[in-house]
Design brief:
Elements lengths: L1 E3 L5 E4 L4 E3 L1 E2 L5 E7 L23 E2 L30 E6 L8 E7 L17 H5 L3 E5 L4 H5 L9 H16 L5 E11 L1 H10 L10 E5 L9 H15 L5 H4 L4 H12 L27 H6 L9 E6 L16 H7 L4 H10 L8 H24 L4 E6 L15 H4 L8 H5 L5 H17 L15 E5 L4 E4 L3 H7 L2
Parallel strand pairs: 3-6, 8-9, 8-10, 10-11, 11-12, 12-13, 13-14
Antiparallel strand pairs: 1-2, 2-3, 4-5, 5-7, 7-9, 14-15
Helix pairs in contact: 5-7, 10-15
């Protein structure tokens, strides 16, 4: 049941109980902080998510709910990401043009980034107003992060954060029609870790049928990936902290205590040899929920076979990462740690011969973390004739002269006036570019095709959308990336 109250405060009855949201000045409605699972505390802190207890009185859904983030990832992202205290972090937000159960509108479900250890669905950059304006229901969700979400524990289910994403998508399936959405027209999307979440969900059998389309923005999926790596991370955790990697040993720790242990795990050191250079607390192939490594599933398996996929990255994701100082490891050693040795190192040096060597470490990080893996997925899907659209966001911010990590989001969300955007994109980011990127997203969510001016990526054309002040399609503009990292 959905209805408007005399005070224009929309009331929707979900499968667990009624929620009261608010009508916005533009006529859209939003419902914030709706629980999709019980608070993960006590015995549930490291357990699989469980449905919330039902309620009978209307739940006030006019303020964002608690976030799993207790400390922003400010050194990497430019996104304003509030941390909101509280236990019920497994909540989601619905922005909708209508609460008519017969509206049948397409739905975009958004998974935030933050390196799997931070991020917040309460960011002003994730407001769904522009999508509502264009006839799309928008849902953003919170999930467990860091140790709570992704550390392998001997006495707890693996990939708890992944299980949270699935629980939220199940909530959407069961409830979104009451908010004007069509559960058969759901597209799942996310950026950075959220983009990696999208690719992970494509490889999870139990997520099949919960969405019809996927949009991976700067998706971060680690390699190597698997239970052996996850157990090695757990052993490193114990050796560095003295704490057993078990739910029993960690369940009662305060948030600040758990963060301190997480910092010790993340610190550099020779004992990290063989582990991913950037991300340790991430989704991994556990042989159960995630049967095989995500990139393997997407490039050699059947994962995502029936799901249209739009994916891409910015041109300079992590290029601003500084070169090592005089007391740090030599640049060739760092690049070798990213896989740049032998023929690959020579190809990299040739491809970037005209760029400042001080930026080569950041460029290599950008390539190995974002561009090469996404290109591998696009190439593999093209070989199998699976509907795929690839892009590169190349508009360079006047703030630092780069198309860097997260810069594309205010354009995609059509939120150039949002808090923090001027600091990231300068005072006059091109409105026409925001119109074009956002229009393509709306078209993809609505029709599973971003539009006639953006052909699908195929094995013969490798058509790639270049988002710049003058958007265009180029044929295989990322050939050098392929030859360095994928040959």
């Amino acid at each position: 049941m959905s209805l408007e109250s005399p005070l224009d405060a929309p009331l929707v009855t979900t499968t667990r109980g009624p929620v009261r949201g608010e009508r916005r000045p533009d006529g859209s409605r939003r419902f914030l902080g709706i629980p999709y699972a019980k608070p993960p505390v006590g015995a549930l802190r490291f357990a699989a998510p469980e449905p919330p207890e039902p309620w009978t009185e209307p739940l006030d859904a006019t303020a964002y709910g608690p976030t799993a983030q207790r400390r922003p990832f400010a050194e990497v992202t430019t996104i304003p990401e509030p941390s909101i205290p509280g236990e019920g972090v497994l909540n989601l937000n619905v922005f909708t043009p209508s609460v008519d159960p017969e509206a049948g509108l397409p739905v975009l479900v958004w998974i935030h980034g933050g390196g799997y250890v931070a991020g917040s669905a309460a960011s002003p950059w994730y407001d769904g107003a522009a999508f509502n304006r264009d006839g799309v229901v928008f849902v953003s969700l919170g999930y467990r992060l860091g140790i709570e979400g992704f550390l392998h524990l001997d006495d707890a289910p693996d990939n708890r954060g992944v299980r949270d994403w699935i629980a939220a998508l199940e909530w959407v399936r069961d409830n979104i029609a009451r908010f004007g959405g069509d559960p058969a027209r759901v597209t799942v999307a996310g950026q950075s870790a959220g983009g990696g979440a999208v690719q992970t969900l494509l490889a999870v059998p139990s997520a099949r049928g919960l969405f019809r389309g996927a949009l991976s923005v700067s998706g971060a999926v680690t390699r190597p990936d698997g239970p052996d790596v996850a157990r090695a991370v757990s052993r490193l955790f114990t050796s560095r902290t003295g704490r057993p990697a078990t739910a029993a040993a960690l369940r009662d720790l305060r948030d600040d205590e758990l963060l301190a242990l997480q910092d010790r795990l993340a610190a550099p050191g020779p004992d990290r040899e063989g582990l991913p250079p950037l991300l340790s607390l991430v989704p991994f192939a556990d042989g159960d929920l995630v049967p095989e490594p995500v990139l393997d599933a997407l490039t050699t398996g059947d994962a995502g076979a029936g799901v249209p996929l739009m994916l891409g990255f910015t041109a300079h994701e992590f290029n601003a990462a500084p070169a090592p100082g005089p007391d740090g490891p030599p640049l060739p050693v760092l690049l070798g740690g990213l896989g740049l040795t032998g023929r690959r190192a020579a190809a990299f040096a040739e491809a970037y011969a005209d760029t400042d060597p001080a930026g080569h470490f950041g460029q290599a990080l950008t390539d190995v973390t974002f561009r090469a893996p996404s290109l591998a997925v696009a190439d593999a899907r093209a070989e199998r004739e699976r509907p795929t659209w690839l892009y590169q966001f190349a508009w360079e911010s006047p703030v630092n002269g780069q198309a860097y990590h997260c810069l594309d989001l205010p354009f995609a969300f059509d939120l150039l006036e949002a808090a923090g955007v001027e600091a990231a994109a300068g005072p006059t980011p091109p409105r026409s570019l925001a119109d074009a990127v956002h229009r393509a997203w709306v078209a993809f969510v609505t029709d599973q095709d971003p539009g006639r001016d953006w052909p699908a990526y195929t094995a013969t054309t490798r058509a790639t959308k270049i988002w710049d002040a003058a958007p265009r399609v180029e044929t295989d503009p990322l050939r050098a990336v392929r030859e360095i990292w994928l040959a």
